[in-house]
Amino acid sequence: MTPAPRRSVPAWLRLACACALAAPLAACAAKHSKLEDGQSVTTGKKSYDGYFAKVAALRDKVKSLESDSVREALLAAVDVKKEASLAELMATTSQRAVHARDYGLLMGLRLSQKPKVVTVRGEMAIDPKDQRLLAAVEESATRTLERYREYSELLTEASELSAEVQELTDGVGKLPNEDPDRDLLRAELAGAERLLDDSQRKLQKEARSLARFALELAIAVDTGADAAQSERCDALLKDDGKPGKKPPKKPPVGPVGPVPPPPPKKPGGDFEM
Q1: Model's pTM, two decimal places?
Q2: Rounded-to-integer distance, Cα 87 and Cα 81, Å
Q3: What sign does the dihedral 32-36-37-40 (CA atoms) show?
Q4: 205 inside domain
Q5: How far apart are CA 68 and CA 214, in angstroms?
Q6: How many domains does the chain have?
Q7: Main-chain dihedrals φ then ψ at residue 166, nearest 5 degrees
Q8: Is the pLDDT of residue 156 over 90?
Q9: Residue 115 φ then ψ, to 5°
Q10: What is the C-alpha end-to-end distance of the chain, expressed in Å?
Q11: Is 140:258 a contact under the CB 8 Å cutoff?
Q12: Would residue 36 count as lying in a domain?
């Protein structure tokens, strides 16, 4: 019986199979370091142990990030569930702001170093619900910018720690060959570098989310307070410079009233005989 002819396997398929088989092996080889597993690293070498402690502290801070906490005050004020999406939360907030506007309360949010809610209101008293909304908007905006600054500081710290990895790795190569910590130091430095890269990506993502939340919040509550204030200022300036308006009188200078005439001279000159 003649054996069936062997079919040639395309080169691209052989390469794909080889990569598929190699991937699990590579994954096994790239073991997590102690730092990546949430542990501390102590080698007795002061410069390295201090570095590992800084990386571990940053790791723990990043792990405990809670960006969603900036929404808590706003969620309670507009009576929206915690699981609501950003779009749902902002839509409800916008509806509440429009409702307040219909009753004479204009609002706006200024995203300065210290966020502030600006209001322009009519003669009606502010409804307690609207008062809670104003307070919640300002609190959420303040917490958002505080958290954004905190994340920015952590990003700077992570970047500085990443810049030290290469120098420390070079230092490991200068240790004696019989040093038992050489392999451990190399493994932990490699793990620290991966950990710092992951931390920076997470911090950047969270920072962008916070910036978007602050911007969306400012848009949602903007019902014209800033524009109304600007119009009032323009009106006041126009009234002050209106044509035909007499300038205020300047206060008189010198004696007030008619000046009395000098006394008459006596006969015979200025001297009495």
Answers
A1: 0.70
A2: 13
A3: positive
A4: yes
A5: 12
A6: 1
A7: -65, -45
A8: yes
A9: -55, 145
A10: 175
A11: no
A12: no
